[in-house]
Design a protein that fits this description.
about 85% helix, mainly alpha, about 180 residues, about 0% strand, single chain, 7 helices
């Protein structure tokens, strides 16, 4: 693997670690319905993207990087991390904690019953449809899509913050000095 591709791949793996850690903590402590924990997960994702992007700029791009360079390379890192996280989510719901799918369905059913505008027959029909759709593969894909949206939004912002263009005057003067 070449230098840049290897750095992007490793940073993508590093970026997947907070997502996996938060998923495990959510399961271990029953925090799936906790809004504060959800916000904390998003904040951790933002900080992780910012730090990985800055590390990439400083270590691979010699401290300088345009908005486009940072955005494109970080997007590749995000895609790698989402692929790894998606595999984890699939394995988690398929083999480690398949009972969590029933908990998700029961929570969704409770929310449907809170809606006064639906009849019992409509609620049961919606529940049956959800049972067919909520699978480890569906949860893996929907989780990846959700994090992709957050990742792109964060990437747009952090690329603007982390961009650091070279000073063209200094570069031109260095060329003149080197030619003399």
């Amino acid at each position: 693997m070449e230098g840049k591709a290897k750095k992007i791949f490793i940073n993508g793996l590093i970026l997947s670690l907070p997502l996996i850690l938060m998923s495990v903590l959510s399961y271990a402590f029953g925090l799936a319905e906790n809004k504060f924990f959800g916000y904390l997960t998003i904040i951790l994702l933002v900080v992780a993207i910012f730090l990985v992007q800055r590390n990439f700029r400083n270590s691979y791009l010699n401290g300088y990087g345009s908005y486009g360079q940072l955005f494109g390379n970080t997007l590749l890192m995000i895609l790698i991390s989402l692929f790894v996280h998606g595999i984890f989510i699939y394995i988690f719901y398929k083999f480690i904690a398949p009972e969590q799918i029933n908990i998700i369905l029961e929570n969704a059913k409770a929310i449907l019953y809170q809606n006064d505008m639906l009849s019992d027959d409509q609620i049961e029909a919606a529940y049956e449809m959800q049972k067919k759709m909520v699978t480890p593969l569906f949860l893996s894909i929907s989780s990846a899509f959700s994090y992709l949206i957050w990742g792109i939004i964060t990437n747009l912002i952090t690329s603007a913050i982390n961009k650091k263009n070279k000073d063209p005057f200094t570069d031109a003067m260095k060329e003149i000095a080197d030619n003399e």
